């Protein structure tokens, strides 16, 4: 490994144009950490929030953006038993993915699934960790239940549709165009609701309400989500693109026995992320190996064009995942 590497840093809080190439020291793995020579890195909404100055890295994490990557194990730290130098992995990262080298905890990496390219593998960790932990571990979605995911054409949405369908749930989703709705149906959604021309509350009430809703919109969607839930339903909140504050009538929660919970992935402990990874390894990776689920890919940009990748993501024109080619 060389002493320095190419990376993309945030020069100051702002729009995509503040992302710039730089040289940084190559990180060295600590106890129970692996160093990865990065092949591709995933691009996610939290990266844009960090770039804008509204999502600071947790203590000890790299200040570079990038929460997932694929590559080859280049070095191992003390106490590493799961991986060896040369292994091909994809990994959840605390930060630092927009770079030629990165370190992460050994238990947050997973093998590259059979038949997937390194670009596809880089699109897995952030969305699969997020969807599995929220929809199945927290909200407890079961076979036969009705599941609604907002933003079905996003990386989170395309992952949630496939996993919920593979687990036997009835899947419903919202999207912002007929093209995106069609893509969601092709992935396995029973019904895709164009939120620009249809009312998702009425659509869900017509089928009996949602047992589980996964939402990243927040704001005025929260009271509408409550109306769209079936009795004893569960709303799982993972972001709030429309804002974090809203007025809500709690009487509906009490009378109809509803649950609202939320989580963010990045600040969770190493042990919590390792527990999610283990469930993915045993319950989801076999589906990927068998080709029953797969990442939906939008565009790949060179590392030097990270700003264009962010602009693409923030335009909401994409369907699926955007990744950076690092090598």
UniProtKB/TrEMBL annotation:
Pfam families noted in UniProt: ADH_N, ADH_zinc_N
Domain of life: Bacteria
Enoyl reductase (ER) domain: residues covered: 14-324
SMART domains the UniProt entry points to: PKS_ER
Gene Ontology MF, one: NADPH binding
Keywords: NADP, Oxidoreductase
NCBIfam families cross-referenced by the UniProt entry: quinone_pig3
Name recorded for this polypeptide: NAD(P)H-quinone oxidoreductase
Highest classification ranks of the organism: Bacteria, Pseudomonadati, Pseudomonadota, Alphaproteobacteria, Rhodobacterales
């Amino acid at each position: 490994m060389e002493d320095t590497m190419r990376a993309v840093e945030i020069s100051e809080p702002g729009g995509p144009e503040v992302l710039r190439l730089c040289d940084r020291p190559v990180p060295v793995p600590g106890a129970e950490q692996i160093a990865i020579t990065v092949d591709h890195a995933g691009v996610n909404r939290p990266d844009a929030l960090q770039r804008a100055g509204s999502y600071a890295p947790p203590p000890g994490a790299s200040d570079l953006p990038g929460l997932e990557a694929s590559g080859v194990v280049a070095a191992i730290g003390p106490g590493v038993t799961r991986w060896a130098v040369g292994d091909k992995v994809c990994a959840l990262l605390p930060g630092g993915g927009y770079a030629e080298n990165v370190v992460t905890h050994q238990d947050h990496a997973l093998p590259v699934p059979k038949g997937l390219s390194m670009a596809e593998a880089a699109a897995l960790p952030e969305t699969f960790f997020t969807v599995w932990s929220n929809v199945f571990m927290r909200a407890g979605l079961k076979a036969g239940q009705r599941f609604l995911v907002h933003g079905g054409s996003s990386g989170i949405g395309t992952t949630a549709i496939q996993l919920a369908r593979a687990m036997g749930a009835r899947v419903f989703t919202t999207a912002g165009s007929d093209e995106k709705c069609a893509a969601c149906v092709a992935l396995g959604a029973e019904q895709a609701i164009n939120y620009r021309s249809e009312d998702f509350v009425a659509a869900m009430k017509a089928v009996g309400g949602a047992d589980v809703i996964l939402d990243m919109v927040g704001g005025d969607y929260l009271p509408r989500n409550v109306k769209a839930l079936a009795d004893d339903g569960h709303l799982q909140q993972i972001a709030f693109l429309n804002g974090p504050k809203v007025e809500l009538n709690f009487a509906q929660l009490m009378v109809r026995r509803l649950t609202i919970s939320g989580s963010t992935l990045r600040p969770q402990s190493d042990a919590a992320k390792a527990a999610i990874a283990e469930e993915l390894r045993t319950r989801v990776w076999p589906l990927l190996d068998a080709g029953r689920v797969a990442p939906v890919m939008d565009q790949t940009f060179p590392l030097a064009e990270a700003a264009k990748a962010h602009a693409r993501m923030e335009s909401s024109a994409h369907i699926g995942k955007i990744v950076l080619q690092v090598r």
